Amino acid sequence: MTFVWLMLTVALALVLVDVVVRKALNIKRVKLTDPKAKKIDMLGRILCAVILFVTFPPLLDNGVIQLKYLFMIMFSVLFIFQAIIQYIFIKESKEYIITLLMSLVFIVFMFNIDLLIDLYS
């Protein structure tokens, strides 16, 4: 049950950041429509996932990296890649600002996950 409350808290924080920043900066939701951008986005995500799944299991087995840091790195790379694609292809919408702020919120939650688990236990 602790996991459910933790995920609800993270999801609520991300939605709150999304809504508040969109209203404050008057940013409308825009999706990638350029076929070239969609192809680059998909190939980049697949490449990031492959690199992460190949490099991190040996690091986890050796105790070099903890699981929470693995998630922080993995999602940070994906968020930042998405923000770069948004900046290049839909620069006029400033959608990349939302993506970077959501990445920052996620990282803050992951750094404090132990505190949150103790709070919900």
How would you describe this structure to a colleague?
It is a single chain. With 121 residues, the chain is an all-alpha fold. The protein has one domain (2-120). Helix content is 82%, strand content 0%. The chain is built from 5 helices and no strands. It has helices at residues 2-25, 35-61, 67-89, 95-111, 113-120. The model has no long low-confidence stretch (mean pLDDT 84).
Topology:
Elements (H helix, E strand, L loop, with lengths): L1 H24 L9 H27 L5 H23 L5 H17 L1 H8 L1
Helix pairs in contact: 1-4, 1-5, 2-3, 3-4
Structure summary:
82% of the residues lie in helices and 0% in strands. It is an all-alpha fold. The chain has one domain.
The coarse overall form would be flat
Cα Rg: 16 Å
Distance between the termini: 9 Å
Topology as H/E string? Answer: HHHHH
Overall pLDDT, averaged?
84
Low confidence ranges:
none
| Contiguous helical run count | 5
- Give the total of domains: 1
Total beta strand runs = 0
> Strand-residue fraction?
under 5%
Q: What about the largest sheet?
A: none
Instruction: Determine the structural class based on helices, strands and strand pairing.
Output: mainly alpha
What portion of residues is helical? over 70%
List keywords for this structure.
single chain; 121 residues; mainly alpha; 82% helix
